[in-house]
Write a structure and sequence with these properties.
The complex is a heterodimer.
Chain A (H helix, E strand, L loop, with lengths): L1 H6 L2 E3 L15 E3 L6 H8 L4 E2 L8 H8 L4 E7 L2 E8 L10 H51 L10 E8 L6 E8 L5 E8 L3 H19 L5 H13 L8 E9 L4 E7 L5 E4 L2 E4 L18 E4 L5 E5 L1 H4 L10 H10 L7 H13 L8 E8 L13 E10 L4 H12 L7 H22 L7 E9 L2 E8 L14 H5 L9 H8 L2 E6 L4 E8 L5
Antiparallel strand pairs in A: 1-2, 3-4, 4-5, 6-15, 7-8, 8-9, 9-10, 10-13, 11-12, 11-14, 14-15, 16-17, 17-18, 18-20, 19-20
Helix pairs in contact in A: 4-5, 5-6, 10-11, 11-13
Chain B lengths: L6 E5 L6 E8 L4 H11 L6 E11 L1 H16 L4 E4 L3 H9 L7 E2 L10
Helix pairs in contact in B: 1-2
The chains are: A alpha+beta, B alpha/beta.
């Protein structure tokens, strides 16, 4: 009821001195506040009321009196006061008669629903116009973003570059960019502007332009971010800022120098797992005189750099669970590193969200180092995944795992005796995973990854061992076993430790993994 | 290396019975080891295990050999092995089985050299 008054101010006709239609002045609009006691009074009134007879401390009443109002006729529709008819004195200066009041009351009863209907139509029309305005604004924002994102991806020898951008319904301010430098290096940028819609898109456009300009003069990622911050902080609207990761890739040396202005940490997917690249720095546009830590990583062949926006890590599923950083790492770790890595990540993400509405833009950039030179395996100084596979948890499948690993490492140049030792260790580790980790449940797989790093093979055997952790290996006491005082079993972990160069165990709440490390050459 | 099902045979000889093992020595060999041991009862003398036709021995297989060795030692019967590849000779050394049973050098046919 009061809302009607707030949104639709009353139109109160000033009493005309002359009856001529031509000389009636425009009505004076008088607003009555929601909390004015006059509103409640009029709602309870039964027909027209003389202003002089109302005893109220009411600002609205004083304003009506000042406007020359003599009689107020409340307009009530469905219990809601939607307006009033305000009349001055009769031209004859005679009081309003009983018939006059009845006529006015009847008129009010007829007019009030019609005015209410007109008000509702006007409100709906205003809402529709607002929706249309927002939709148009989002179209403009989306257009700005699409126009400014790279239309083609850089062709970098020995590297695969892939990028993806999926806007949310309310377009945000995600962006990414590749800037080729004259010396063959590339500046790779991913950023996210706070806020959404046109304001975010405009800030994104400014930030991108500044970054491009600065990168032509400076190739240090820390300097690029610092200079961009200085330019941005002067003009960015209040309460807005930009998170941004800036990296400079040298494709020849595989070196990545990077600085981070409060953006999601970049992930490095290696054959052995997932690492994060850390460098500290404040978001752009918050404060002047910022400095940005610069760190360096070497992306060897087989390694992929994965840059994300928070729309990915903050994606929710139907149960309102957020993906989060840890799940993101797990998701990434579950993806094979190949030319389909980006698609695999998105598939895993879609699997997690299960059709839940996307609330923020999702941006993903993947750079995978593909070149390799396996001319001398022993001297091969890099990390490379040779393969991965699974076997169901069925006794006897350890032989399959053993044979597949042997096949995968066949061309590495591993000494035959060392291969036999490794094979037996793989067999034992897989058997443990089947029997103990997965409890011989055939529906659970044992996951095996084979990688080569710096002339050393890394075989990771992973199970779903939430039941018990992998115990430390102990040396079996053969005398006790032969005397019947100890079980003849219990050789598996001991053999593994004796046969390979190093054994590393990993684990979390859902998985246990044993990593067998074996140099290609060494004492047999 | 192809997986091979386990089988066995006991051969009587002047210098004691020979258990000839074929295929993979793993959990699938459990019943075979027990049956082979039962056959030894009527064949006195030292026991020879012939591994020349085995390609794969896992930790469960080691446990079976330990069990058989324990029973033989309880009956004061020496146990020897032949036909082991270099890899499994190393396994027997690591597990110290070679401290409790004689390991014979083997020619390519798996016979004692």
């Amino acid at each position: 009821m009061l809302k009607t008054f707030r949104r639709q101010p009353e139109v109160l006709p000033r009493t005309a001195p002359e009856p001529s239609v031509d000389t009636v002045p425009l009505p004076e609009q008088i607003d009555i506040a929601d909390h004015d006691p006059l509103i409640g009074y009029l709602l309870g009134a039964d027909g027209p009321i003389e202003v002089a007879k109302i005893e109220l401390e009411s600002p609205g009443l004083r304003r009506l009196e000042a406007a020359g109002t003599h009689l107020i006729v409340p307009l009530v529709s469905q219990g809601e006061l939607i307006g009033t008819l305000n009349l001055g004195r009769r031209l004859s200066d005679q009081p309003y008669s009983t018939d006059d009041r009845k006529l006015l009351a009847g008129l009010a009863a007829q007019v009030a629903p019609a005015i209410r209907l007109a008000q509702l139509v006007a409100e709906r029309q205003a809402e529709a116009e607002e929706r249309e305005r927002i939709a148009h604004e989002l179209q403009v924002a989306a257009l700005i973003q699409h126009t400014l994102l790279p239309q083609t991806l850089p062709d970098i020898s020995g590297w695969e570059v892939d990028a993806y951008y999926r806007p949310a319904r309310a377009v945000g301010g995600d962006f990414y960019d590749f800037i080729a430098l004259d010396d063959g290096r590339y500046v790779v940028v991913i950023g996210d502007v706070t806020d959404k819609g046109v304001p975010a898109a405009l800030v994104m456009a400014s930030c991108r332009a500044i970054l491009r300009s600065v990168a032509q003069q400076h190739s240090d990622p820390g300097v690029i971010l610092a200079k961009t911050n200085e330019a941005l902080v002067a003009d960015i609207p209040p309460n807005m800022f930009v998170t941004c990761l800036c990296a400079v890739l040298d494709p020849e040396t595989s070196t990545l120098r990077f600085a981070n202005a409060g953006h999601n940490l970049p992930y490095v997917r290696t054959p052995l797992g997932v690492d994060e690249l850390r460098a500290t720095g404040m978001p752009l546009g918050l404060m002047p005189d910022m400095e940005y830590e610069v760190n360096e990583a070497v992306l060897q062949p087989g390694i992929a750099l994965v840059l994300t926006s928070d729309g990915l890590t903050e994606a929710h599923n139907r149960g309102r669970e957020m993906l989060g950083f840890e799940r993101m790492k797990d998701l990434l770790g579950a993806c094979t590193v190949d030319s389909h890595l980006l698609t695999r990540i998105l598939d895993e993400l879609d699997h997690f969200t299960d059709g839940a509405e996307q609330e923020d833009d999702i941006t993903l950039v993947v750079l995978r180092h593909t070149s390799s030179a396996r001319t001398s395996a022993a001297a091969f100084d890099s990390a490379m995944e040779l393969g991965r596979f699974t076997v169901p948890s069925v006794p006897g499948n350890e032989r399959i795992a053993m044979d597949q690993v042997a096949e995968l490492v066949r061309d590495t140049g591993i000494a035959p005796a060392r291969l036999e030792r490794l094979s037996t260790a793989v067999s034992e580790a897989t058997m443990n995973a089947i029997e103990h980790g997965n409890q011989n449940r055939s529906e659970l797989d044992v996951h095996i990854t084979v990688a080569l790093t710096n002339g050393r093979l890394h075989i990771t055997v992973r199970d779903h061992g939430a039941v018990e952790s992998i115990p430390d290996a102990t040396t079996p006491d053969l005398e006790l076993k032969l005397a019947g005082l100890q079980s003849p079993r219990g050789w598996g972990l001991f053999l593994i430790e004796q046969l390979v160069d190093e054994v590393i165990t990993h684990g979390d709440d859902d998985h246990h993994a044993i990593e067998l490390v074996m140099a290609l050459e060494g004492d047999s | 290396m192809t997986s091979m099902p386990f089988s066995w045979e006991v051969i009587g000889a002047d210098d004691g019975p020979v258990i000839v093992l074929h295929g993979d020595v793993n959990s699938a060999a459990t019943a075979g080891f027990e049956a082979a041991h039962d056959q030894l009862a009527g064949l006195p003398g030292p026991i020879m295990l012939d591994f020349a036709d085995t390609g794969y021995i896992n930790s469960t297989g080691i446990a079976l050999i330990v069990g058989l060795l324990a029973k033989a030692r309880a009956g004061h019967r020496p146990v020897a092995a032949r036909g082991l590849s270099d890899h499994y000779r190393e396994i027997f050394r690591i597990t110290r089985l070679s401290d409790f049973m004689t390991i014979h050098d083997t020619d390519q046919a798996g016979r004692p050299a």
